[in-house]
Design goal:
alpha/beta; 4 helices; 3 strands; about 35% helix; about 15% strand; globular
Length: about 100
């Protein structure tokens, strides 16, 4: 799991290469799982800082706190529409807490 902003920036840039290089059409549809909403927002903010020309459209946080989350999921499912990077919260760790056991 990537947690610090430096590691997030490194992960977004890859190992010395730029995944959003102008020679490439675009990064394929990508799903990133964050540990919570705040972590997802840090990843989104870092993406926007690294790629200001894609700010707010190419990578989006999609979780229960976001208005129109279903619309974003539908757009993410369409290869021709943004967002191309969905940043979601991994709720697997909370599954046992919501089962009513």
């Amino acid at each position: 799991m990537v947690s610090s902003s430096g590691c997030i920036g490194y992960s977004l840039h890859g190992c010395g290469s730029n995944p959003l290089d102008a020679r490439v059409d675009r990064l394929g549809k990508t799903l990133i799982f964050a540990k919570n909403h705040a972590h997802a927002q840090v990843i989104s903010d870092r993406f926007d800082k690294n790629y200001p020309h894609y700010r707010g459209t190419f990578a989006r946080v999609i979780d229960f706190r976001v208005e129109y989350a279903q619309l974003l999921i539908d757009d993410f499912s369409n290869p021709a529409r943004t967002p191309h990077v969905a940043i979601s919260v991994d709720n697997a760790g909370d599954a046992g807490k919501t089962c009513g056991n």
